[in-house]
Amino acid sequence: MLPLTEYFRTVPGAISGEDRDRLLGACAAGSMSATGRAVPRAFRKASRRGLPPRLHDIRDRVVEIALREYAELPVAEASWEPGRVEAQLTRSGDGEFYRPHFDNGRGTHPRIGLRAVTYIVYLGERAYGGGALRLHPTRPMPRHIGGHRILVGRKVPGEPVEVEPEDGTLVVFPSWVLHEVSPVTLPGDPWKGGRFTLNGWVGRTRNF
Fold first, then answer.
1. 83, 114, 132, 207: which is deepest, by most CB within 10 A?
2. Which domain holds residue 174?
């Protein structure tokens, strides 16, 4: 099995300061809601909103970089066609977290099962503790869903690797990799220095 460092790529300065400020401007207090009913609050605590269409130009630039970086990973799939792109803005305040999970749901849900690439961009200077992205040792396994051949993850023994949040940094990894977000510690107003991200997924259309 390859070292975990071969399962992800980081790209510092992936977005401009202007784009970061545009994204943060869409994260104003009251514009985001608690994570959906599909994920229990005991499993994930954060707030989010869909990315407004006026910001899709930023998403498109980020996804272009993400796919280029993904293609360089030793664990990347060689033959697949990118399809649906999802994007959202997320913030985490004091005590909020996301337990270990697979972004493609291990292929059990038709809506998310075709996710192939996960991307995250950190927004704003870090003025909080915790909030690291923690990637766990995972082995890919083939599975078929809706006529598509996909990869799903299976946790294997080993120590996780942590990626610390850095303003403007893009993180890219396969959606079958088990990962989590460690609890955020933030005294005071969560809107001043909370953990903000642009994050999303690139799905597949078909296999060759």
1. 114
2. 4-207
Number of domains in the chain: 1
Q: Provide the angle, in degrees to the nearest 10, between the axes of the packed helices 56-71 and 17-25.
A: 120
pLDDT digits (tens, 9 = 90+) for 113-166: 899 999 999 999 888 999 999 999 999 999 887 777 889 999 999 999 999 999
pTM score above 0.85: yes
CA distances from 139 to 2, 104, 178, 190 (A): 10, 14, 9, 36
CA distance 188 to 180: 24
Residue 98's CATH number = 2.60.120.620
Euclidean distance between CA atoms 19 and 123, whole angstroms: 10
